[in-house]
């Protein structure tokens, strides 16, 4: 049998869900193929979304009309804003979600998206004709034809799990691996390699001594992921808990190292350096006598708990004995041990910035297949791949986000320009313009761009316009309202800030670190009246956005000037203009890397590791600049 679609998305993880929803909402007849419809957007590891830099990505996905933020808000059982002690460029939302409700909510979204259909099956082969992908063949011997295909295979490509010396083929515990695609793509000249990730033990809450742990409550304020005023937390909010390993735990773990796949040669691929397994921690940080662990709920109505910080591939009995040496877990019962998993990925420098492969037209990769890790990084790539798959089918310019426009832009540019030598995770430090990429203003940066594309809907665009108008009105009021010392000095001194020697504009007071708009409103009735005009459903969000713009305006303007200068190099296109091998004045390394990456612009060339400033100057001279 044969069926025809515009876009086929293979894999229903976080990348696949966003890709399929984006393509369908833009108008493409879209088919989402998954091996298990009951595991859509499965949170394979920690049932949490967001975190440092990752939370910014989720807000960007939402600002463009994606669904990760909406689904997370609906299924959150704990919410926190990380890095509050730092400036707003570092604030990062994070939510613990109910794993089962998260799947249920995503499936509801997909099943009610026009132009989107689902098929439960495995994909074993791509249909490729004249260097262009034309569809897929499945394990049931069904042929689906399409104008574009997006592969989002997660950890399933030749997945192999490790628990001590025990090896199990699969993409996730109790789920089969996907075979055939890697071998086909390698035969077509696409380079593949292996990576490793892992997950911790799952614990039965009934066996935990919570009185011997520190409670970690969530926050209950206006912050959330989605910019929509219809998105709210609906479930009961739960606590997490913390405890520590000890020297006896470490002794037991060391006993198991000869049987550890990480140290006995069983695993040869590279794992995530920033999220090491517990056995890696005790080897790398041998001087540490304890490591912090976070016990996190898997759902509102389940006893299953996730032990963050205890990822392991050690033998089951070693994991269990080590846990029992922690006082809170002395009577522990577990649902399953931690395990490591190896899987295939493809060097992302083989992709263009729209996530289309350079070798095969209309074939897109998104998620862990590109060497990334994390639901958020996958979702951001999936959204961009789904948009561009639709564009390739219906016409238009590629949709590419700049490094000064979004963390998603930083992520994709890093992947296609630098490649990966370990599972890639987004950090705020990777973004040179992080003051411009704050979590509070992703809608200001991206919603109009998405609306013009046709993805963000009319209501979302209306909310953006309303927010911008009210935010700017507040800033205008502060810039023009005069404050006199005799009316405010007593209040200023009571708040621990210096009195005024002469009158000033309200804006100047907002800049003081001890003050904010709410404190000033208690002293200035006219400001309180102005704040009361702000839309009630999003009042705190809009006031916060206005205050951040005022307090950090100098930093924001300076960083924007730097970004604008760099963007001049982004506008100097060099793709297809040079035979790099013939430019002898370039270093040998530069010639090799420029040939392999084939950068789009001078700016991208400057970000390739090993390309020196002198190499860039040579290219600029040859361009007549």
Sum this structure up briefly:
The chain is built from 21 helices and 21 strands. With about 625 residues, it is α+β, with helices and mostly antiparallel strands.
Give an overview in words.
Helix content is 36%, strand content 19%. Strand 8 and strand 9 form a beta hairpin. The N and C termini lie far apart (57 Å). Helix 3 crosses helix 4. The strands form four sheets. Strands 10, 11, 12, 13, 14, 15, 16, 17 and 18 form a nine-stranded antiparallel β-sheet that branches. Strands 1, 2, 6, 7, 8, 9 and 19 form a seven-stranded mixed β-sheet that branches. The protein is globular. It is built from 21 helices and 21 strands. The chain has 625 residues and is α+β, with helices and mostly antiparallel strands. Its main location: cytoplasm. This is tRNA uridine 5-carboxymethylaminomethyl modification enzyme MnmG. Pfam families: GIDA, GIDA_C_1st, SAM_GIDA_C. NAD-binding protein involved in the addition of a carboxymethylaminomethyl (cmnm) group at the wobble position (U34) of certain tRNAs, forming tRNA-cmnm(5)s(2)U34. Homodimer. Heterotetramer of two MnmE and two MnmG subunits.
């Amino acid at each position: 049998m044969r069926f025809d679609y515009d876009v086929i998305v293979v894999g229903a993880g976080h990348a696949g869900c966003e890709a399929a929803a984006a393509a369908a909402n833009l108008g493409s007849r879209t088919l989402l193929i998954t091996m298990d419809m009951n595991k859509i957007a499965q949170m394979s590891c920690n049932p949490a979304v967001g975190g440092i830099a990752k939370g910014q990505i989720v807000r960007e996905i939402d600002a463009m009309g994606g669904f990760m933020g909406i689904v997370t808000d609906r299924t959150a059982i704990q919410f926190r804003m990380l890095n509050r002690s730092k400036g707003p460029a570092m604030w990062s939302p994070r939510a613990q979600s109910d794993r089962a409700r998260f799947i249920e909510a995503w499936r509801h979204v997909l099943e009610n998206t026009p132009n989107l259909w689902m098929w439960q099956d495995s994909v074993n082969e791509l249909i490729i004709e004249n260097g262009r992908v034309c569809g897929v063949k499945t394990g049931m011997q069904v042929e689906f034809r399409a104008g574009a295909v997006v592969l989002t295979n997660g950890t399933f490509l030749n997945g192999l799990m490790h628990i001590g010396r025990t090896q199990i083929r699969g993409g996730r515990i109790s789920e089969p691996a996907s075979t055939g695609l890697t071998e086909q793509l390698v035969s077509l000249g696409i380079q593949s390699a292996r990576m490793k990730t892992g997950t911790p033990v799952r614990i039965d809450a009934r066996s935990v001594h919570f009185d011997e742990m520190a409670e970690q409550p969530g926050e209950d304020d206006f912050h959330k992921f989605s910019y929509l005023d219809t998105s709210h937390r609906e479930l009961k909010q739960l606590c997490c808990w913390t405890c520590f390993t000890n020297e006896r735990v470490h002794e037991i773990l060391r006993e198991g190292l000869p049987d550890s796949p990480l140290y006995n040669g069983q695993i040869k691929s590279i794992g995530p350096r920033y999220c090491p397994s517990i056995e890696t921690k005790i080897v790398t940080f041998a001087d540490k006598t304890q490591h912090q662990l976070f016990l996190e709920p898997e759902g509102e109505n389940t006893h299953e708990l996730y032990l963050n910080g205890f990822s392991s591939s050690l033998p089951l009995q070693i994991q269990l004995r080590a846990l029992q040496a922690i006082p809170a877990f002395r009577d522990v019962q577990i649902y399953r041990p931690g395990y490591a998993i190896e899987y295939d990925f493809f060097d992302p420098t083989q992709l263009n910035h729209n996530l289309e492969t350079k070798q095969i037209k209309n074939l897109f990769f998104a998620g862990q297949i590109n060497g990334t890790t994390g639901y958020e990084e996958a979702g951001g790539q999936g959204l961009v791949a789904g948009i561009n798959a639709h564009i390739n089918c219906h016409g238009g310019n590629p949709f590419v986000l700049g490094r000064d426009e979004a963390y998603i832009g930083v992520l994709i540019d890093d992947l296609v320009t630098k490649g990966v030598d370990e599972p890639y995770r987004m950090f705020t430090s990777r973004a040179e313009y992080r003051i411009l990429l704050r979590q509070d203003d992703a809608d200001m940066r991206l919603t109009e761009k998405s609306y013009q594309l046709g993805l963000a809907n009319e209501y979302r665009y209306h909310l953006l316009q309303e927010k911008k108008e009210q935010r700017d009105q507040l800033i205008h009021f502060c810039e023009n309202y005069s404050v006199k010392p005799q009316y405010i000095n007593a209040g200023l001194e009571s708040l621990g800030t210096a009195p005024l020697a002469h009158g000033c504009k309200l804006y100047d007071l907002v800049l003081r670190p001890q003050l904010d708009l709410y404190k000033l409103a208690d002293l200035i009735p006219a400001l309180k009246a102005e704040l009361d005009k702000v839309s009630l459903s999003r009042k705190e969000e809009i006031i916060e956005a206005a205050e951040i713009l005022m307090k950090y305006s100098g930093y924001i303007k300076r960083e924007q000037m730097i970004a604008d200068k760099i963007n001049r190099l982004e506008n100097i296109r060099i793709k297809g203009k040079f035979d790099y091998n013939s430019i002898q004045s370039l270093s040998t390394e530069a010639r090799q890397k420029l040939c392999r990456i084939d950068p789009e612009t001078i700016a991208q060339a400057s970000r390739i590791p090993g390309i020196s400033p002198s190499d860039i100057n040579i290219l600029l001279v040859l361009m007549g600049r």
